Amino acid sequence: MQFTSIAFILFFAIVFGLYWLSQKNLKLQNIVLLLASYIFYAYWDWRFLALLIGTSAMAYFLGIKIGENEGKKKRIFLNLGLILAIGTLFYFKYFNFFIDSFADLFNIKNTLTLSIILPLGISFYTFRILSYFLDIKNKKLKPETDVLVFFNYVAFFPSMTSGPIDKGGLLLPQLKKERIFTLENGSDAARQILLGVFKKLVVANSITPITQDIFHNYDHLSGSTVAFGLVLFLFEIYADFSGYSDMAIGFAKLLGFKTTKNFAFPLFAQNIAEFWRKWHISLTSWLTEYVFTPLIIEFRDYGKKGLIAAIILNFVLIGAWHGARFTFIFFGLLHGVYYIPLILKDKLNKKKKISKPIPTFQELGNILLTMIMVCFAFVLFVAPTLTDAFGMYARIFSLSLFSVPLFIKMKILGLIGILIVIDWLNKDQEHGLEISRYHPFIRRTVYICLIFMIMYFGVFGNGNFIYEQF
């Protein structure tokens, strides 16, 4: 049930009505929300609903035990929770990868590979549970004793399939208090959903056939065409993923919830550190808090070398989080290596604000260089194997890089240009269509234009989002 499907529109309309009709009874409202989340999840594959419920029950019980105990017992329950959560994720996402890799390494005939289906959203709800355990252990959060509230936290359907990864400290308190629907929040949510639909159906889906054709046939294409495909992929994955996040945040807002911001206009980042502060924010902030910070404390005696090691390890984990492929690991490794010049020059945490209304040549150069670095690393993201990645790099660095690329379509470039303009004009706002500050005539014109482009240019056949596979 994709956000852009008729089935979801009908589903959400029913849920929205029942949910707000139950407003005066918080428990009943949470029951409606939980049932909606389970129906949404079962629509994808009902067989994994038992896994979601069982994982929630395990986390609920162990969370209480972690909070009740101290010392050795506390560590036992914490470690048990971490092992069960990570172990479940490992089995579904990485088991075959490690078995196949071990067999290849020692040239052993592999008879253990299983037909394992990756449960929808498992990476996202597992990270919610892990942060919940760790926050209780660090006394940032008290164990949740309300079963209904906690199960809703794990299964919250607007952000189930591709995030954002909300921490317990943000979502749990909202589930325990009365939610109020206001016209202002509803209007803002509708604007953000509209932008998300435009990004996905018009921009991302229009680009997808071109990038798929380029990446599947890279060995028969010029280096310039492969490089052009990577640039297109940058806009495709940004429009696809940030479009999903806009819709998820918007639907959550319609239900009275504030969720984690996931993108902050990363296309205008002036270095790689700023890019990751603006891209997939809920994942990078999660790893910063629970992985990078402990590593920094552990490596604090090694100065800049320790900082480099911590960042590289952190980004290797970011790469591995995306899936069981060596290319993802090297994707993360390369981004970690990108940080080294910033660390050596003490520019890691320096934030640069872009000039208004037009960037300077230096700022524009920084932005272009950052995007080139991101596109260069995307080879490892889109290539299914390291052999394919090296093949794509070989094509890019051949003399054919200086030829005219194929697949240039003015419609696509125009749609990308519109996306860039929308982001640029609202780069200091919470999201790209937060335009309440403009005259009503301008706002209505923008809405009409976006709706027209969705109806005229929208590609409705592909409702799948890229990050659902992670």
UniProtKB/TrEMBL annotation:
It is found in: Cell membrane. It comes from the Bacteria. One of its GO terms (cellular component) is plasma membrane. The chain crosses the membrane at residues 6-21, 50-67, 76-92, 112-134, 306-322, 328-344, 364-386, 406-425, 446-467. The keyword Secreted does not apply. One of its GO terms (biological process) is alginic acid biosynthetic process. InterPro entries: Ac/AlaTfrase_AlgI/DltB (IPR024194), AlgI (IPR028362), MB_O-acyltransferase (IPR051085), MBOAT_fam (IPR004299). It is a multi-pass membrane protein. GO terms for molecular function: acyltransferase activity. The keyword Hydrolase does not apply. Keywords: Acyltransferase, Cell membrane, Membrane, Transferase, Transmembrane, Transmembrane helix. Belongs to the membrane-bound acyltransferase family. This is D-alanyl-lipoteichoic acid acyltransferase DltB (MBOAT superfamily). It comes from Chryseobacterium defluvii.
